[in-house]
UniProtKB/TrEMBL annotation:
Residues 37-318 form the ABC transmembrane type-1 domain. This is ABC transporter ATP-binding protein/permease. It is found in: Cell membrane. The lineage of its organism: Bacteria, Bacillati, Cyanobacteriota, Cyanophyceae, Leptolyngbyales. It comes from the Bacteria. It comes from Trichocoleus desertorum GB2-A4. PROSITE patterns: ABC_TM1F, ABC_TRANSPORTER_1, ABC_TRANSPORTER_2. Residues 352-586 form the ABC transporter domain.
Length: 594
């Protein structure tokens, strides 16, 4: 049992690699017309290289020794034409194969990005952005280096190798046999180093992902790191991850450094053997000088393809490790699937009901338990409670970022699992506490959810959101370019732009996560006024951190440990003198009053 373990593990690794390679080769299907052309060019290039030494050896025996100068000149002209044809074919094969591979890799990148966009929110709860970027950039780049840049050489040298072997045995069987005795040693050497390299290159791909994640985290959190005096600690943590990546790559390079000299040694050994035995045959008259010369040329050509193929093999180990990580990502279950008979969500009137809803991010731990609520069209529902109580989960269920574990979420009496996600979400607007703006113009950011909106529609939404006056004061107005995350706008200005974004899609249901925190008093007044306009006539769910902002709510739901423990208007809950009244009194620093 113990001895069989490594064998089984090796077989599983080989099977996994073969499966990965087969899956990668499926990307060649759209180029089935171009591939035969590329292979033909490869074959022509290989044939021209294989025939050259034979013609040189023949010329020595039949033209040079015989003193046939005119015949030699004709042979030189023929060799020139053959090599010109070969160079042209090789250049064509590199261009053709490169054209195919770059489009193939472009499609692979597109598939990764498309997959990332379609993954469920739960996937990002457990994944790091830097690692995902590493798969899209570093892993694909490794595949590009192995297959995109050297695949043409690899194919050409494979064809050349077969052509050289055939030519060798055709000219002199004994010398051909002697030359090929080094092949088993090369296969053994390559296999030995490949098994060693495979694990190392898999580690390098993982450490590069960890390094990218740590780098992305360090860049985005530099302000917090400086504010909390964690700069030195962050540098030390990055140093550990960086050292792990460095050590993994050093070990991988060490394998290559040991492998290539081994191949060179076998090359030299085989050349010496052919020279010794070929010289003996020439002296004894069993072989001509031309044959020995041709063999020496063939031996040099014979080991060059093997050396290149061996180098490619080690590069392929790194590429296959990267492909494994890529395909693991592509195999992740996509976003919640629409039911096979899902229909379009009718125009929403605004009634939202939770019927005995239970939900857990894992089956063993429920976040929501027996939640009942009903929001009438146009009502404002405030969700209050401590961090982790389940407020954001309720919002996520309305948007159907997750499916309920038990019960049902219904809008206008329709179970949201029975309609398409796209038709549901296009009628729901959301303004978060920390809204994300994107690199692009102000107009593009406002029209993020309505990319086909006219300039007039964008400006009307901005006016309703109290951001129009500010935007037209910018150097290029609505065409002003914003940087990453909306720089250089302030927090309050970003909030106003995000409110304009919600206004533009004209949602029937609106979700607000306290939109007035961390902004100055003047901007807060603008935001509050914009929100009041936005709420008018719409059903809204407001996650309230400051209770003073929800005193006008039609319903206040107090949530603790995944359950609604109190509900009513602000006045009703104050009169009850319960949890909400105590929270309100604590925030205002005074006794609660209705």
């Amino acid at each position: 049992m113990t001895s069989a373990g490594p064998v089984v593990a090796a077989e599983q690794k080989a099977s996994r690699q073969l499966s990965t390679l087969q899956r990668f080769l499926q990307y060649l299907r759209p180029y089935k017309k171009e591939v035969p052309i590329a292979l033909l060019l490869v074959a022509i290039g290989a044939a021209t290289q294989s025939i050259g030494p034979f013609l040189i050896g023949w010329s020595i025996d039949n033209l040079i020794i015989q003193g046939n100068l005119s015949g030699l000149l004709l042979m030189l002209a023929l060799l020139a034409l053959i090599y010109i044809l070969g160079i042209t074919a090789i250049r064509g094969q590199i261009l053709r194969v490169g054209w195919i591979m770059q489009r193939l890799l472009g499609q692979l990148r597109q598939d990764i990005f498309t997959k990332i966009q379609s993954l469920p929110i739960s996937f990002f709860d457990r994944s790091e952005a830097g690692d995902l970027m590493s798969r899209l950039l570093n892993d694909v780049n490794t595949v590009n280096q192995a297959f995109g840049q050297t695949i043409a050489q690899m194919l050409g040298n494979t064809f050349s190798l077969f052509g050289i072997i055939i030519a060798m045995f055709s000219i002199n069987f004994k010398l051909g046999l002697l030359s090929n005795l080094a092949v088993p040693l090369m296969i053994f050497t390559t296999s030995f180093f490949a098994r060693w390299a495979r694990a190392r290159f898999r580690v390098t791909r993982q450490t590069i992902g960890d390094l990218s994640a740590k780098l992305e985290e360090g860049i985005t959190s530099v302000r917090e790191a400086q504010a909390f005096n964690r700069v030195e600690l962050n540098i030390a943590e990055f140093d550990l991850v960086n050292a792990a990546n460095r050590d993994a790559n050093v070990q991988a390079v060490a394998i290559t450094a040991a492998f290539l000299p081994s191949i060179d040694f076998l090359n030299t050994l085989a050349t010496a053997a052919v020279l010794a035995y070929g010289g003996y045959l020439a002296v004894t008259g069993a072989a001509t000088v031309g044959v020995v010369t041709a063999f020496l040329l063939y031996v040099q050509q014979f080991f060059r393809p093997i050396q290149i193929l061996s180098q490619f093999y080690t590069q392929a180990q790194s590429a296959l490790a990267g492909l494994e990580r890529i395909f693991l990502l592509l195999d992740e279950p996509s976003q919640l699937q629409d039911a096979p008979d899902a229909t379009e969500m009718p125009p929403i009137q605004g009634e939202v009901a939770f019927e005995n809803v239970a939900f857990g991010y894992s089956p063993s731990q429920l976040v929501l338990k027996e939640v009942h609520l009903c929001a009438k069209p146009g009502q404002m529902i405030a969700l209050v409670g401590p961090t982790g109580a389940g407020k954001s989960t309720i919002i996520n269920l309305i948007l159907r970022f997750y499916d309920v574990t038990g019960g049902a979420v219904k809008i206008d009496g329709v179970d949201i699992r029975s309609v398409t996600q796209a038709s549901l979400r296009r009628q729901i607007g959301i303004v978060l506490q920390d809204n994300i703006l994107f690199s692009g113009t102000v107009a593009e950011n406002i029209a993020f959810g309505s990319p086909h909106a006219t300039q007039a529609d964008i400006e009307a939404a901005a006016q309703l959101a109290n951001v129009h006056e500010f935007v037209i004061s910018l150097p290029q107005g609505y065409s002003t370019q914003l940087g990453e995350r909306g720089a250089p706008l302030s927090q309050g200005q970003r909030q106003l732009v995000s409110i304009a974004r919600a206004v533009l899609i004209n949602p029937r249901i609106l979700i607000l996560d306290e939109a007035t925190s961390s902004i100055d008093t003047r901007t807060e007044a603008l935001v509050q006024d914009a929100i009041a306009r936005l709420l008018k006539g719409r059903t809204s769910f407001v996650i309230a951190h400051r209770l003073s902002t929800v005193t006008q709510a039609d319903q206040v739901l107090v949530i603790q440990q995944g359950q609604i423990v109190e509900s009513g208007t602000h006045a009703e809950l104050i009169a009850q003198q319960g949890i909400y009244a105590n929270l309100y009194a604590l925030q205002l620093g005074a006794p609660a009053a209705a």
